[in-house]
Amino acid sequence: MRPLEWSKSLANMLLAAIVANGFQPFDPFTFALAFIAVGPCLWGGLYALNDFTDRHKDTLHPVKRRRPIPSGQISPRAALGLAAFLIALAFYLAVYILRNPLFAVCLLGMLVNQVLYTVKPFEFKKRPVVDLVSGSAVNPVLRFYSGWVLFGEGANPAFNAPWLLLAFLVGIQFGGYTLYKLGSKKVEKTVGYKSSIVLFGEQEIKLIAHFAIFVGVVSYFLALYHGILPLKFVWLGIGSLLLTPVYWKTLADPKHMDVKNMYRVLYLHAIGFILGFLALAFWA
Question: Which chain regions cross the lipid bilayer (predicted)?
């Protein structure tokens, strides 16, 4: 279920909920239920489904072969049953507890996108261009809107978030995911994938990733300039930029990144960003 990965949903949903509610305190119980539906339930189930479909390929990966299914700790059938239960529970919370149809649409969008990415005969993860778009451009938007529609426009929420915030989230997450994927090039080539990292040159992929991250950073500061975020949030942007040396080796040579250490750094950064955003929104 990859609990640490839920931090992406938490960060995206929190940012959306805070901005949508005009930087005023919102109902924490509603938000907590929504996060449980998105993070532990929906994405916990989708990660289990992904591990089920990738179980044979993961045995060839130096890191992923330690996951519960390829390592033999959990049977494939048990993992598939867990995935189905968690995904069903996510929609139960959305439809019968939160009673928010737009929130349910966000869940459905993420489910459909991940099925297209993971499951035969679609398997977008094996196809060039759509593998990167499906894997890291669609989901950040839907995670963000999962928080936005909870509190946006009072009783009449809509899919009307500022595009600069979406560009910030998509740029950073698309760029990071693309660099991470370069570390799997050897495995994906061995199993016959025709993915972006297999078909396109490493330098081109790195250039795309770096450009996406640049767009994300610029979008954040433009959101400050246009008043979408209060100017005091500039300190979060500056603080994140000061961490650039920590990521420099990964940015320059992603194929040889220390995946375990980089995950640790990214999660600590994400947690720090969340706490900083909360502090500036409600207490600073």
Answer: 32-53, 74-95, 163-180, 207-227, 233-252, 264-283
Q: pLDDT tens-digit profile of 119-159?
A: 888 989 889 999 999 999 999 999 999 999 998 765 456 78
For residue 17, give its domain range. Answer: 3-282
Before 121, cis peptide (omega within 30)? yes
For helices 28-36 and 6-20, the axis angle rounded to 10 degrees is 150
HEC profile for 39-72?
A: HHHHHHHHHHHHHHHCHHHHCCCCCHHHCCCCCC
Number of domains making up the chain: 1
pTM for this predicted structure: 0.90
Cα atoms in the 13 Å half-sphere on the side-chain side of 229: 26
Q: To the nearest whole number, what is the mean pLDDT of the chain?
A: 90
For residue 91, give every residue at least 6 positions away whose Cβ sits within 8 Å of its Cβ, in sequence order, or none: 37, 104, 107, 108
Q: Which residue type is seen at 99?
A: R
Residue 250, both tokens: 């990964």
Read off the CATH number of the domain in which 246 is found.
1.10.600
- For the chain, give me the number of helices (H) and strands (E)? 15, 0
Query: Per-residue pLDDT tens for 245-279?
Result: 999 988 888 888 887 788 888 888 988 998 999 99
Q: What is the pLDDT of residues 201-221, one digit of tens each?
A: 889 999 999 999 999 999 999
Write phi, then psi, for 112 (nearest 5 degrees).
-60, -45
Q: Are 206 and 182 in contact (CB under 8 A)?
A: yes
For residues 79 and 86, the answer to whether their CB atoms sit within 8 Å is: no
